[in-house]
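@channel anyone free to eyeball this complex?
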Amino acid sequence: VTSRRFVVGDDLALSPDQARQIATVLRLGPGDVVVLVASGAELDYRLDRVSATSVEGTVTARRSADVEPRCALTLGLPLLRGEHTELVIESATQLGVRRFVPYVSARSVVRDVSAGKLRRWERIAREAVETSRRARVPEIGDVVPWDALFDALDGRVLVAWEEERDLDLANALPAGAGGLSLVIGPEGGLGPDEVALARSRGAATVSLGRRPLRAETAAIAAVARIIAALDR
Amino acid sequence: VTSRRFVVGDDLALSPDQARQIATVLRLGPGDVVVLVASGAELDYRLDRVSATSVEGTVTARRSADVEPRCALTLGLPLLRGEHTELVIESATQLGVRRFVPYVSARSVVRDVSAGKLRRWERIAREAVETSRRARVPEIGDVVPWDALFDALDGRVLVAWEEERDLDLANALPAGAGGLSLVIGPEGGLGPDEVALARSRGAATVSLGRRPLRAETAAIAAVARIIAALDR
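replying in thread with the prediction:
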């Protein structure tokens, strides 16, 4: 499905790629209307001039985009093998994550990320915002080591941990709509010293259920449950 | 992570592939113990004879595998493009789905599935059972058209539908632990006649939230929410 929604910056400028999409793929011209998605707002944008590399137009209507989740959820995400990080960024953005903080820990298999991959993540997040009709592209932070992760998170911090037996995610969610951060463990699991460090920084370990999940399943499942519980 | 858990049939026979894994990859021999996972039970299995193509042994302990979800959830899953069906089968099996019923509907883009792909789905489901330490490999039904789908589902039937505004998934779940079926719409969406047919067969349409989700995200998110709510 080709969308007529385009995520833009505060200057409302459409990129050459977006202009090409409008001119060549959608075949729109002067008088046609597209939707611009800028931070927190949706704008109807009547095209005035269209070329294959640039577009000019006029904002004819402005509304606040009210599908943004009412909770600000930050996801601490380990670097995962293959396409799994991309998959989580795509799904978690559709579900409503506000910010991603990628990290590496002692047992991380993947330990760094190329500039090209970072740009790919940003493109995937932008496309997922368009799919889900959100108004805000989630920020993707720099990759940090485990001991710097907790400085980069907001609000109450929950760490999904396979060995946690007592506290289920459902019972660990804050009542209000304040900030919340969720950390998913890496493919190799978290070591006891890493769990101790998290707790010393005020994080609580939570269980996602009785069955071990792969990291990407855990991330999507936990984000879905949190957003469903807090975004009423 | 190489697992010592092997899913077998009721005859407890290990396949040549599994024997090779035991002999060549894990390098186990007589006296070593592996875990066999048969329908509903976990067995300790002491190896007596090991070759590269066959293994014989003795059951030394038997326990019921209690991580199986207490709810029997059937997932009606459209055929999806690329690797997306595989992804949903993998994640939804880890989360606890009991049975899959693949289907095609009017706007389905992918309309049939090769025998090789079906075997691949079955292998992915079996591996996901091993990952999540479940005891039961979900059944994957034959591909059915929309109007036969409702004959193949169990219990209360919920159809996730983007245009449903009133009934959220959370408010549509049965109180008891009886059978439940969830249908995820295809990539092209459901037509009004398809929704009408579902309702005439007793299904309820439900919302997964205010943001449109891609089919694979919707499937994983909804399964995670249902299992978390019903498998207490």
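from a first look: Chain B touches chain A through 33 residues (CB under 8 Å).
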